[in-house]
Amino acid sequence: MKFPHQHSLKEIAEIINCDYVGDPEFPVLGMNEIHVVTPGDIVFVDHPKYYDKALESAATIVLINKEVACPEGKALLVSDDPFRDFNKLTRHFKPFQPANNLISDSAEIGEGTIIQPNAFIGNNVKIGKDCLIHANAYIGDNCIIEDNVIIHGGTVLGGDAFYYKKRPEGFDKLLSGGRVVLKKNVEIGSNCSIDRGVTGDTTIGEGSKLDNLIQIGHDTVIGKQCLIASQVGIAGCVVVEDDVTIWGQVGIRSDVTIATGTVLMAQCGVSKDTTPNTTYWGTPFGEVRTKLKEYAAIKKLPEIVKNLK
């Protein structure tokens, strides 16, 4: 998330009422999660296990819960609760805006686009040319939809990220200030849910097609010309590269990369990165021919055991 204009380190510290280390005029341009930070961004860290990763990241401002040596060329925001203060910044720069109409007055809708009755179009949404938005689709604030996109009924674009911190009194939600971006010629089936990024974008690449009943987690990036069948669940921060095929009921854990040309057969449980142009099957998943040989060998076990007696 980039701020509307540059802020100083001191200004940001005053918003969240915390101490800082560095030049008071140190430039702050935005805030992001660690996997998408760029210079000028704030990143937060609240666990010693990840201090080094945050301090060595591309972010130049680190919101942290301990006084540590400040890396050269960077600044620190020292807070007793970085998670809470990251939420404060999201509320400040991306406050919730109630809707007054089914189609927001601030939405931009391109020539030739058809929006069926009871579709909801949120604040600051941009929809390109020749799109078709079916009845009862929900397109949340700040979503970007390019040309020739089809969205079927019951689909939700821009729901909140499923991201919580466990506290003694219960789960504390990390607020979502990001977007969903659909590139040209995408089609989304009915009753899909595509969560917006926490601070960045959840993106569906050009020409990709999604079946019904699919969940895409926050900040996940789907490449070009991908096919995803029904009941697939993809967690947050996954990268699916180009020309990937994912068949029904596949589950993909967070922070993995599905390489170009990968095929995931039905009901795969994907727990790690894949190799380009390889077909996988099973839970735990593996290369399909290897998995078939394993299952064939398992079928022989009763006979092997019998002969051992």
Automatic annotation (TrEMBL):
EC number: 2.3.1.191
Enzyme class, first EC level, given as a word: transferase
SUPFAM superfamilies in the record: Trimeric LpxA-like enzymes
Record's keyword annotation contains Protein biosynthesis: no
InterPro entries assigned to the protein according to its UniProt record, in alphabetical order: Hexapep (IPR001451), LpxD (IPR007691), Trimer_LpxA-like_sf (IPR011004), UDP_GlcNAc_AcTrfase_non-rep (IPR020573)
Highest rank taxon of the organism: Bacteria
The UDP-3-O-[3-hydroxymyristoyl] glucosamine N-acyltransferase non-repeat region domain, residue ranges: 27-91
Keyword Repeat: yes
Pfam families: Hexapep, LpxD
GO biological process, one term: lipid A biosynthetic process
Keyword terms: Acyltransferase, Lipid A biosynthesis, Lipid biosynthesis, Lipid metabolism, Repeat, Transferase
GO cellular component, one term: membrane
UniProt GO MF annotations: N-acyltransferase activity; UDP-3-O-[(3R)-3-hydroxyacyl]-glucosamine N-acyltransferase activity
Name by which UniProt lists this protein: UDP-3-O-(3-hydroxymyristoyl)glucosamine N-acyltransferase
